Amino acid sequence: MSFFSRPQSASSAVKIVNPNTELDDKTNLISPIRPSVDSPQRQCRNILIYGSCRFQHKGCLYYHPPVRSRPESPLPLSAQAVNAPVFVPKAPSNVTPSSSSSQTLELSPPLLLNHAAHSEYDSYAQQTSNGTQLMDSEDQLDSLQLDDYDHAAASLGAFYQSTQSTFVRQPLDYHLYTHPIPNFTPSQFIGDSLRVELQKRSEAIRAASAVGLNLPDELQGYHSLFPLEPLVPERRKFFSWCSTVYRACSSSDGVTYVLRRVENFRLMHQAAFNLIESWSRIHHPNIIRVREAFTTRTFNDNSLIVTYDYHANAQTLYDAHIKPRAPVFYQGRLQVPSSNLSEDTLWSYIIQIANAIRAVHEAGLAVRMVDATKILVTGKNRYYIYSCGIADVLMYDGRQDTSLLQQEDLAMFGRLVFGLCCNNLAAINTLPKALEIMSHLYSVDIKNIALYLISKPGPHKNISQVIEMTGKNRLLREMDGMQSALDRVEGELMSELENGRLVRLLCKFGFINERPEFAREPRWSETGDRYIIKLFRDYVFHQVDESGNPVVNLSHVLACLNKLDSGTEERIMLVSRDEQSCLVVSYKEVKSYIEAAFNDLAKVSR
Ligand SMILES: Nc1ncnc2c1ncn2[C@@H]1O[C@H](COP(=O)(O)OP(=O)(O)OP(=O)(O)O)[C@@H](O)[C@H]1O
Questions:
Q1: Separation of first and last alpha carbons in the chain
Q2: Angle at CA of residue 312, ends 308 and 314, nearest 5°
Q3: What ipTM describes this predicted complex?
Q4: What is the pLDDT of residue 218?
Q5: Region label for 100, one of left (φ > 0), alpha (ψ between -120 and 50) or beta (otherwise)
Q6: Could you identify the atom of ligand 1 that is nearest to the CA of residue 308?
Q7: To pair with 381 at 20 to 30 A between CA atoms, which of 41, 298, 401, 433?
Q8: pLDDT tens string 230-243
Q9: Ligand 1 atom nearest to CA at 244
Q10: Using one digit for the tens of pLDDT, what is the confidence trace for 240-255?
């Protein structure tokens, strides 16, 4: 008895079964009655499925009709097709048969493209028993002619198996995924250095909250307080107050922020908080954003709290460059490592800090703290002024002249430039010596800017002048650096592009596969369309090679999942675990089964 049947569900998967089989109504599949008797008169099933048989002249026993008499399109399969025997060499474990034009042998360009999509199949199929790979003249021709097509075309061919006889170059579409590269390499994921950096930031954000520090569990909508500096009694004063910086999580949006607490501060003028509101409106890439300010008695005193955006693993400029370093052995001698900044880095500082000050002055405010301990450094080349607004609250004076404070910002900036050049924040106190070091290490332009910044205040002295003094070439160089950094990061991001979608798919697999019971049906995950999902999972993850060893080919997994997520028409053959039955299904169909099964689960869970 031989038969060809569709699954009992609405599934449109084409079943290919051993001709001598009977239907198992539990698995919805077909189980063998007796082994088939292969006969050379029977038409080879490879012809019907793939349009050609690569073993026609290599020992395949079955009948291969002349090329012209073969059907135009091999799919959908007819009942005759199902009964046709197939020559299956023992070796191919990760065979990837997909629909192919029936005219492969004619080697027209579109068909070569289809043929290329079978490359995995072919390469496995052509392995000799001792594992060496053969390449026949047809393959050589294929690869030569394929060179005429660019990679985009090849990838389109791989994803969209067309039965058209002419190749149509299709535009890239949003759902088109990258063509899998032959060998999986780490470059398919984010680069190591960036990954490590981001990992460290993530750890910094999620580090467990400290215990035994007697910190409040909750503080005006913030929880999980964690001090960012040691809580020692002897601390440098913040103006004339003691202050502590905490990391904390907001209950309203779940984001981590920085809370600066000023101890024992009594707010005398509510209007001081108006300036915090003005600060919170400044969004600038070189300024840590101010969020809100409030007073609290949660710490058993009158504390002022100002909250800021948190930049995990940021260092202060002082810690990064000025803090004295421990001596290290170098060429047999104990030496203090030089921490002189390069001229380029120094210009980067000057430009970014000047840019931040410009934004603040344009908003009608003054920074009031341009100091190495109040500038943060993140990544390789980003500087931010931080702790903004707090001085306005602490030293609130409604009649204060902002332009004077802005002139003071410039003078502080000048002192900082001297400090950075001489690696000593007090360098300005010995000006002649500082100028000598500066002239020795840096260009005259740096010295001119520093001198301008500390010069007498005047109506024409402003931050725009400073920016002009840096010169357009240096500004353009800074812009180049920023854009290159952006390109680098975007490049890294590209390699992670598909991961989110793939994780969602894997989660759906996880919900469906091996589910012990659903709707009081213990075999739910093993029957109907879910059985096809199970076989697909085997096809993706559980393939073995000719020796029965697992094929751990991430490239294959990524390619399959990408095609599944795009729902391509490409067909694959799924084989039951006992190897007695197989199904030809398209990725599109498998996708629809997964969607349906997942929706069934999701509906009930709501
Ligand atoms: N917005 C922020 N994002 C990330 N880290 C921050 C932020 N604000 C402060 N920090 C970190 O908190 C730590 C303490 O900040 P703080 O301003 O108290 O520095 P400090 O060097 O101790 O200065 P001071 O002596 O004035 O207290 C610093 O190491 C800094 O890196």
A1: 47
A2: 90
A3: 0.96
A4: 93
A5: beta
A6: 1
A7: 433
A8: 887 777 777 788 89
A9: 18
A10: 888 999 999 999 999 9
